[in-house]
Amino acid sequence: MTAARNGDREAFAHLYRRYARIVHGVLLAKVPLSDVDDLVQDVFMIALRHLPKVRKAEKFGAWLAAIARNRGNDYHRRSRPEDQLADDPPCTHVPSRGDSGDDESAVILETIRSLPDSYRETLILRLVEGMTGPEIAARTGMTHGSVRVNLHRGMQQLREKLSSNQKSSRPEKETL
Questions:
Q1: What residues does CATH 1.10.1740.10 cover in the chain?
Q2: What percent of the chain has pLDDT over 70?
Q3: Per-residue DSSP letters for the chain?
Q4: pLDDT score at 13
Q5: Which of 10, 29, 135, 160 maximizes the CB count within 10 A of its CB?
Q6: Is pLDDT above 60 for 50?
Q7: What stretch(es) of the chain map to CATH 1.10.10.10?
Q8: CATH 1.10.10.10: does it fit domain 92-170?
């Protein structure tokens, strides 16, 4: 942290390698997959410019995750059509397994994105980015207990949505 703050590019590259999955996961929970990689780069560019503002090295991950969340929110503010009404509900359509062109991972990702924010982010960090609960806690600044609760409740909701989605996409059996 100190070396990166003093302009050492290799030290910043180390921070990038260590925290890129967190940033990727946070953004994946908020923005379309096609825009995630560009926004990851944006987040690290913002972090590089504002690195001297970080006082405690142990808070770097939480600070970076907050930048990623803000960048994800900015993405939606900037990309919203001007004629959209402010009180329009967000799209909550969860694709079914029978939707054309959707594979299972896309269905699961969209289902995760339909969950509340607190569960969405931790589930993506766990299931997509492959991070453990303690890694998520250490790198986001969340407590171990919060991560455990969010993962547990998020997985419950994910299972419920996927099973109800699977049931609704099955054709009814005909009785003769």
A1: 1-81
A2: 80
A3: -HHHHTT-HHHHHHHHHHHHHHHHHHHHTTS-HHHHHHHHHHHHHHHHHHGGG---GGGHHHHHHHHHHHHHHHHHHHHS-TTS-TTPPPP-----TTSTT--HHHHHHHHHHTS-HHHHHHHIIIIIS---HHHHHHHH---HHHHHHHHHHHHHHHHHHHHHHHHHHSPPPP--
A4: 95
A5: 29
A6: yes
A7: 92-170
A8: yes
> Sorting pLDDT into bands at 50, 70 and 90, what band is 79?
low
Dihedral angle of Cα 102, 105, 106, 109, to the nearest 10 degrees: 150
Q: Name the one residue in this structure whose structure tokens are 């989605």.
A: 165
Domain 1-81 has CATH 3.30.70.1290: no
Tell me, what amino acid is at 90? P
Lowest pLDDT segment from 2-11, 70-79, 81-90, 134-143: 81-90
